[in-house]
Amino acid sequence: MKCNYCGKKLKSKEKFCTYCGNYNEETNEESHSLFDEELNLLDESIYETKEEYDYVKEFNLKADSSGTKEDEFFYKDEKYLESYIGEDYKLIKKSPFNIYAFLLNWIYILYRKMYGLGIFGMIITYIMVIINPKYLLIYLLIMMLIIGLTFNKIYIFFSKLKVEFFIKKHQDMDSFAIENKLRKKGGVKVSIALIIYIIFLTVLFFSLFSINYKKTATNKFWTENSNNKATCNSLLKTTYKSLENNNHKENISEGVCKIIPTNNKKEYEITLKIEINDTSYYKKYKSENDYLVFNLETFNIKELEVKDINKTISLEEKEYLDKLKQVEEDYFKIKKDSKKEDLLIKNNKNTSEKKNFVFSKEEITR
User: Fold this and answer.
1) Residues 250 and 290 in one domain
2) How far is Cα 125 from Cα 201, in angstroms, rounded to an integer?
3) Does 50 map to a domain?
4) With contact defined as beta carbons under 8 Å apart, do 131 and 207 qualify?
5) Could you report the per-residue pLDDT of 119-177, keeping only the tens digit for each?
6) Same structural domain for residues 272 and 186?
7) Residues 237, 353: one domain?
8) Between helices 175-185 and 136-169, what is the axis angle to 10°?
9) Looking at the structure, do residues 242 and 133 belong to the same domain, yes or no?
């Protein structure tokens, strides 16, 4: 409103002009409510300077932003958003960091019913951990920081999308019914989050256990025994060729084989001795259902022995260590029994088929 005499802009509900003192009668324009004026806040003509207009325009743009600082958080359907988010709504909207998301990681995302994002994140976590298990703690710490810093903004963004979609889909509902529906649709859910997360941890644990201790490595590569055409020499050569790691092939120093007679066919135990940096370890294979399968390797036996000495070894690790020690004992027993059999053959006192064999690197690799 402007002064009828001098044209100076008057304040809201101001009757006397502070510039010329003229009394201004109430007009229809003057009777407009503040609410009506606010509807035209983006009308540039009502501002004296461009700076005033730019400030109000910027303020209005913030009013529909997805930021999480409380003093900048304005949303046209905030009461519906609060109904949808429910628990800890005020904390989530004003804080740039979520301590619960940081500490609980993916289970907190599942707890907030963001199942798609949570499961996707756990799949990525599983892949990263399986590829490089030794960096597990570093990866988890990085993920905790990322989730803690970004969760609130991401959660509010997706919550707004769901709220707006729901309102658009149910325009015939009254406000009270919409709030109740959104409250049930959003919020939190403990049971489903726990079930999904326990399944994830179980799969991850057994996968890591299999990688560390090689219990499930059963790559089948031999079928000669099904026709009783196998020999210890042929099996050792086949085992050598099957090794995927070239370093193993280059460092093989010896191999032993034991024949175990059964009712219908022979069964075999094959052990390769591999030397790396003045240390030795053993890879054992055995026949099983007409195949020769990987059984155990003693590469990490020293690490487990140190744990055993320091009494920090778990029950499962102790059982596994005993099996690895048995592999080494069996290796030396086969070598010893082979010498005994050779001596009996040399003295013509051997009355049964030779069952224990030792082969040098040259015999295996040629």
Assistant:
1) yes
2) 11
3) no
4) no
5) 999 999 888 888 777 777 888 899 999 999 999 999 999 998 899 888 888 888 888 88
6) no
7) yes
8) 160
9) no
Alpha helices in 63-189 (DSSP H): 78-85, 89-94, 99-104, 106-111, 115-131, 136-169, 175-185
Judgement on whether residues 195 and 270 belong to the same structural domain of the protein:
no
Rounded CA gap, 230 and 270, in Å? 12
User: Is 264 found in the same domain as 202?
Assistant: no
Task: Determine which helix (DSSP H) or strand (DSSP E) holds 301, and give its type and residue range.
Answer: helix 301-309
Of 65-79, 173-187, 227-241, where does the model show the most confidence? 173-187
For residues 238 and 225, give the distance between their C-alpha atoms in angstroms, rounded to a whole number: 12
β-partners of residue 282 are 273
- Buried b or exposed e, range 246-278, using 16+ CB within 10 angstroms: eebbebbebbbbbbeeeeeebebbbbbbbeeee
* Domain limit, last residue, from 213, 242, 277: 213
Question: At CA 21, angle to CA 16 and CA 26, rounded to 5?
Answer: 30
Percent of the chain with pLDDT over 90: 24
- 287 lies in which domain range? 224-365
Look-up of token digits 């806040």: 41
Task: Report pLDDT digits (tens) over 321-352.
Answer: 999 999 999 999 999 999 988 888 888 776 67
Q: Which tokens go with 276?
A: 């790396």
Q: State the chain's mean pLDDT as an integer.
A: 78
In the listed set 213, 233, 265, which residue is the last one of a domain according to the structure? Answer: 213
Question: Three-class SS of residue 350?
Answer: coil
